Automatic annotation (TrEMBL):
Pfam families: PASTA
Top-level taxon of origin: Bacteria
Record-annotated PASTA domain positions: 43-114
PROSITE patterns according to UniProt: PASTA
Protein name: PASTA domain-containing protein
Length: 175
């Protein structure tokens, strides 16, 4: 008996579902969605992935981009401490990022650094190291001053506190 009821519920559910789909015009919506999807696929079917050019020489990277049909430009980066040990005249990164799909003939920026940027980056690293050493020296001086002040205060307090037991023992030893 339970099976008959569930079978009946399924049949009614299917009929209601198909009636709702037809009355709400879901097929029209599905057709429009499919049409838009096909249009998108047609527009982007010729997209090319941007090659990974990191750590490639600038001249080689430009040749690769020209061969793939991209437009490109060199962009000199600003000095940063993180760039101090990077090689010069090599691609540091690209915009758009590597492996991103773009239309043929898109514009790609090649970020690189020259010797001037490298020396400035190394100077930034040296300045950071110097600041760190100065902070450590200042902290060591503060700790030393605190320890000295604490020693002096403890010594002063010990002189001011009367110690009667010690005086008695001293008198007893004299006698």
């Amino acid at each position: 008996m339970v099976n008959k009821k569930t079978g009946l519920v399924r049949k009614i559910g299917k009929n209601i579902g198909s009636t709702l789909i037809q009355s709400l015009g879901v097929t029209d919506i599905a057709d429009k969605s499919l049409e838009l999807l096909n249009k998108y696929v047609d527009q982007h079917s010729g997209d090319i992935r941007v090659p990974d050019l990191k750590d490639v020489g600038l001249d080689d990277a430009e040749a690769i981009l020209a061969q793939l049909g991209f437009k490109y430009a060199r962009v000199l980066v600003q000095p940063k401490a993180a760039l101090a040990e990077q090689a010069t005249m090599m691609v540091l990164e690209t915009q758009p990022k590597a492996n991103k799909k773009v239309a043929p003939g898109s514009f790609v920026k090649l970020y690189f650094m020259d010797e001037v940027v490298q020396t400035k980056s190394r100077e930034l690293v040296q300045q950071a190291v110097l600041k760190k050493q100065q902070r450590k020296a200042q902290q060591a001086a503060r700790v030393h001053n605190t320890v000295q002040a604490t020693k002096q205060n403890v010594g002063n307090m010990a002189q001011k506190v009367p110690l009667p037991k010690l005086k008695r023992k001293a008198k007893q030893t004299k006698q």
